[in-house]
Design a protein that fits this description.
By secondary structure, the protein is mainly alpha-helical. 47% of the residues lie in helices and 3% in strands. It has a two-stranded antiparallel ribbon with strand order 1-2. Helix 7 crosses helix 8, helix 7 runs parallel beside helix 9 and helix 9 packs antiparallel against helix 10. The longest helix has 20 residues. The protein starts with 8 loop residues before the first helix and ends with a helix.
Length: 280
């Protein structure tokens, strides 16, 4: 129930006429609206008999008295098409009911006027619209909503970072690494044995695709230079060579690397020049 309903004059008048306290009047109207939302969502509650309406709200008195009071105080409207409709139901229905009516493609039951209520006892006190035979009109069928066709499934676009959306070609086995040149295996093995590898390890590393003679000879020269400078120990130097083969490190394209023999010659020459200068 919306805030402020219980202070409306028509709310007070309905309670007085039916002899109900405020809380009972509020409950009666709340039950009416719940019944309408569930069973006559368009607001066309008149498709049910007065007795049905009275039972739905828990009214134990005369159903005609109840319905007449609801009409008199503008909680229900008489209608020539629907017999009875809830007053301004299209405005006051809860949001869930409004969405259900909209989704179903239905229209709201609006009072068209012209309804007449007979309160004579020839029909047991039922409140009926004008009819030659005094019978209730058949409830109008609710229009069936048109079925919404299922959308055709569309292929999912590839999403960056989503491995399941990548093209199938991505999942092909990666190409196998090319084997080393058999003609170079013996040469590389001898270089590694000369550096200190045992024959078995030297042979295993010589078979790797990146173990070309040029690369391995350069790696060994680099390791020897760092050994002479005291930068690394022997086991670290051997690990340096293995890592270079594994990662395919190419010789430095910059200035030529000074070999150990060249370095010894340079140092001796520089020392000799210094001694000669000091003595002279």
């Amino acid at each position: 129930m919306k805030r402020g309903t219980m202070i409306l004059p028509k709310f007070k008048r309905l309670g007085r006429e039916l002899g109900l306290p405020t809380y009972a009047t509020a409950g009666l109207l709340e039950c009416l609206w719940h019944f309408t939302a569930q069973c006559a969502e368009r607001g066309n509650v008149g498709k049910y008999t007065d007795d049905d309406i009275a039972e739905a709200v828990g009214w134990e008195g005369d159903a005609a008295v109840l319905v007449s009071a609801l009409i008199r105080h503008k909680w229900l409207d008489e209608c020539g098409t629907h017999r009875l409709v809830v007053h301004d139901w299209d405005q006051h229905a809860d949001d869930a009911t409004k969405k259900r009516v909209d989704r179903s493609g239905l229209t709201w039951a609006i009072s068209t006027g012209g309804g007449q209520r007979r309160t004579t006892a020839d029909n047991g006190g039922q409140n009926l619209p004008t009819a030659d035979n005094g019978s209730l009109p058949e409830p109008e069928p609710e229009p069936e909503p048109e079925p919404v066709p299922e959308p055709e499934p569309q292929p999912r676009a590839a999403v960056v970072g989503d491995p399941w959306s990548k093209p199938k070609a991505v999942y092909q086995d990666p190409p196998k690494a090319a084997s080393s040149d058999p003609a170079h295996v013996g040469e590389v093995r001898d270089i590694l044995i000369g550096f200190g590898f045992n024959p078995s390890n030297a042979y295993n590393h010589a078979k790797k695709p990146n173990a070309t003679p040029v690369r391995v000879r350069w790696l060994v020269d680099q390791a020897l230079r760092r050994l002479e400078l005291g930068e690394i120990e022997k086991n670290k130097a051997m690990g340096f060579v293995v890592a270079g083969i594994r990662d395919g490190i190419d010789p430095d394209p910059g200035p030529a690397v000074e070999t150990p023999a060249q370095r010894r010659t340079r140092v001796l020459t520089e020392n000799a020049k210094k001694i000669w200068k000091d003595e002279t």
